């Protein structure tokens, strides 16, 4: 004896159920990814320039640095590069906001 199908999806073809699942996941995941990216960008715009001590503000372009072959396995090995709109200089930072030089060492 076959069990009875119960629920709203009982009479739908499988392809329709898969399509509904994909659309639902997309509607849920895409806004979360956009929100996460904007949250990180808002965090960076409040950091202060090491030279003029003014906030970096909204960046026109977000750039990041990374060290692929680092001898030591200690941080930092990646982070944002921010351009100060006041003094027009680029500065590299660790993910937690400490300035680093071109070799990835803390300044």
In short:
This protein has one helix spanning 14-44; strands spanning 63-66, 78-83, 90-93, 99-100.
Specify the structural class: alpha+beta
Count of alpha/pi helices: 1
The H/E string reads: HEEEE
Please state how the strands of the largest beta sheet are arranged side by side. Answer: 1-2-3-4
Measured between the Cα atoms of the first and last residue, the distance is 74 Å
Percent range for β-strand residues: 5-15%
Overall geometric form: elongated
* Helix content range: 25-40%
Poorly predicted regions are none
Q: Please count the beta strands (DSSP E, at least 2 residues each).
A: 4
> How large, in whole angstroms, is the Cα Rg?
23 Å
Number of separate domains:
1
* Oligomer class: single chain
Describe the structure.
The chain is α+β, with helices and mostly antiparallel strands and 107 residues long. The chain has one domain. It is built from one helix and four strands; from the N terminus they run H-E-E-E-E. It has a four-stranded antiparallel sheet, with no helix packed on it. A hairpin with a 5-residue loop joins strand 3 (90-93) and strand 4 (99-100). It is elongated. The mean pLDDT is 81.
């Amino acid at each position: 004896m076959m069990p009875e199908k119960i629920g709203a999806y009982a009479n739908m073809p499988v392809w329709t159920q898969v399509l509904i699942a994909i659309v639902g996941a997309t509607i849920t995941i895409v806004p979360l990814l956009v929100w996460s990216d904007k949250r990180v960008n808002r965090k960076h715009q409040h950091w202060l320039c090491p030279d003029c001590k003014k906030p970096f503000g909204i960046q026109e372009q977000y750039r990041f640095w990374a060290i692929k072959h680092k001898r030591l396995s200690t941080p930092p090995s990646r982070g944002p590069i921010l351009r100060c709109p006041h003094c027009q200089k680029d500065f590299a930072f660790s993910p937690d906001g400490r300035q680093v030089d071109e070799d990835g060492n803390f300044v």
